[in-house]
Give the backbone structure.
Amino acid sequence: MQTQTHSPNPVTVANLTDAVQQKGYGVLSAASVAQWAGCDLRELQALSPDWDNMPPDNYLKDGGRYRRRRHSSFVFENEALAPVPHRAHWQSLDYNALHGGMERWFEPMHDTTVATPAWAQLLTALAHTAAQVRGTPHDKWCIEAHQFRIDTTDGIGRPTPEGAHRDGVDFVAVFMVNRVDIKGGETRVFDAHGPQGERFTLSEPWSLMLLDDTRVIHESTPIQPLAEGGHRDTLVLTCRAGSFQDA
């Protein structure tokens, strides 16, 4: 069974900064993500099995069982990336009316995942692009990494149960790690201060959507199974200048 999708219009690595500056977001193909990060695409694809067997998200206020995740935090400072001691994920109610205002302690990412050269290269590329978009180097970028698996255990999975939102950071990078036997999961990006919006479906493994979180609102529509075990895996990196969000 096939479903219709609206494909994004990717840009080149050379045009990514301009795209984010001009319209608040840009999309890269998987090959361009590898070029952007300075690694081989096969190194990124080798990370994909790390999305299997993740622990459930026990903080879903809608009572759902459709989300599994891991969360770790890093600092990029003086051209060096370092993990920080495991910490809670926190957002204010201003940015997440459903799950904001509480500390959410998720299991950390595996050491073997974050120890790979490709992992450091991805986060370094994000910090460099963040500085380029803002036009001034920043001494410290605080990066939170979220591994998500949205499954169809209950017949429907919600990638963004909070609806259209901002994350309260400077930039959000959404990598499509895998789509398996699902329909739906359309990405929608809206101008935070106007009526403009675009929609498309990220489908290529390790393609990227990079958002300026100060300028756009985003959401992903629910997914439904096309076969038993249908799921959607993403990596979401948020990047904030100076400090993490904390209660």
In short: The chain is about 15% helix and 30% strand. The first strand starts at residue 25 and ends at 28.
